[in-house]
Amino acid sequence: MNTLKSINEEILSCQKCGLYKTRTHAVPGDGNMNADIMFVGEAPGKAEDIQGKPFVGAAGKFLDELLAEIDLKRSDIFITNIVKCRPPNNRDPQDNEISVCWPYLEEQVKLIKPKLIITLGRYAMNRFLPDLKISQVHGQAKRYKGVGGGIQVYFPMYHPAVALYNGSYREILKADMRKIPKLLSMIQSA
Ligand code: URA
Question: 51 in a domain, yes or no?
């Protein structure tokens, strides 16, 4: 039987794709193991690769601002990525990297059993919700197949890094974030 600790250990020594050759640290994920909300990003960047923790660079600082909009702290949520090692020069993750890394995320979801999965960016969204366009569905709750059977509620958001390049996304991300408390209480009382 897997535990989060055993999954973390597997991730830290994983060599299932070529990314292990260029990583400093794999980044399994961090936060509250009993969280109702799991955030799933794309892949570690430079700061995350160095520190071995998710969202500790510039995008992570803005994510903290977004969390503060609804009085959430890192210790209230669990946060991870679809790919656990940094792609060189922050290039997009490749299909084979996403698919060999997927079982780790599946196990994390099965163990943490979040009530709501918030995907950050199109790569994370499309791994759970294929064929959707983020510009059309961000900020909308989607009920879809969960890992391990059943139905899971997903909430796609833009990746916080987009707001670093284009300030007009800041308010869009904040407005989407502000929908989460009501959504979560609806799920909790259903
Ligand atoms: N971007 C991500 O998608 N994940 C991180 O952990 C950091 C930046």
Answer: yes
